[in-house]
Amino acid sequence: MKILDLEIKSYGYKEILKTIVSCSSTRKYFSFLNINAYIAVAARKDESLRNDLNQFSALYSDGIGIYFASKFLYGRSGLAERINGTDLYYKILDLAEKNNYGLFFFGGTENAAMNLEANLRELYPKLIIKGVIARKLCFDENILNEINSSNSDILFLGLGTPYQEKWIATFGKKTNIPIQIAAGSGIDFLSGVYKRAPEMLRKLGLEWLFRLFSEPKRLWKRYLLGIPHFVFLIIKQKLFTKESL
Cα Rg for the chain, rounded, in angstroms? Predict the structure, then answer.
């Protein structure tokens, strides 16, 4: 379905994991990003970001905003399942451990990179981690060579928007890693450096509110200004396009 000019696949967790298994077994290139309201609005304003997003194999939903927008625009044909990006990453790690997939992580803060492996080992003791590099916003061929030499199965890329999208658009098909995930701040969460909202808030779709109170200086514009802007654009799409109900 189309949400703010972005084609988002109506896949749930099971379908996404099935795609990962299929592409991993054949070493077929597959890159994806979970689109949230912030990225959807950013892409509408930034042509370069839109072009980079078009290079991805698939765009999936992330969070309560995109889920409700799909229901408002398409009714019963909207998203069948609300996807949370971080929950999806944990499911992928579980899948990776069971299938002996090699993982490479590029992104997150220096502190996250230092703590990532130890934190994941507590949850997934048999996980195969082939490399971890902290976030660097330069497009370095040396990093590409290190990633390729790992011969991993899955790359978690946590450079933040729009840098991770630009990296995959530029280097994605130059790597030998079949599965590439633009994970945003996911590596910081997986490392334990960023704390997740209590489970009750996550179930209610209010994880964004917890993040706002945790990092108000960095995130206040994204949520306090970005959410009303997103709602306005969704209403505009509903009123002035033929694709929505």
Answer: 18
Count other C-beta atoms under 10 Å from residue 34's C-beta: 25
In DSSP notation, 56-90 reads SSEEEE-SHHHHHHHHHHHGGGS-SS---HHHHHH
Give the range of the structural domain holding residue 94, as residue numbers without chain letter.
2-186
pTM comes to 0.93
Which backbone phi and psi does 239 adopt, to 5 degrees? -80, -30
Q: Provide the phi-psi class of 133: left if phi over 0, else alpha when psi is between -120 and 50, else beta.
A: beta
Phi, psi of 56 (to 5 degrees): -75, 150
The verdict on residue 206 lying in a domain is no
Of 21, 43, 39, nearest to 30 by C-alpha is 21
Q: Is 223 domain-assigned?
A: no
Cis peptide before 198 (omega within 30 of 0): no
Residue 245 pLDDT level (bands cut at 50, 70, 90) = low
Would residue 65 count as lying in a domain? yes
Distance (Å, whole) CA 67 – CA 133: 32
As beta bridge partners, residue 61 has 35
CA 81 from centre of chain: 16
- Domain count within the chain: 1
Residue 145 CA to residue 133 CA, distance in Å, equals 12
Residue 169 lies in a domain: yes
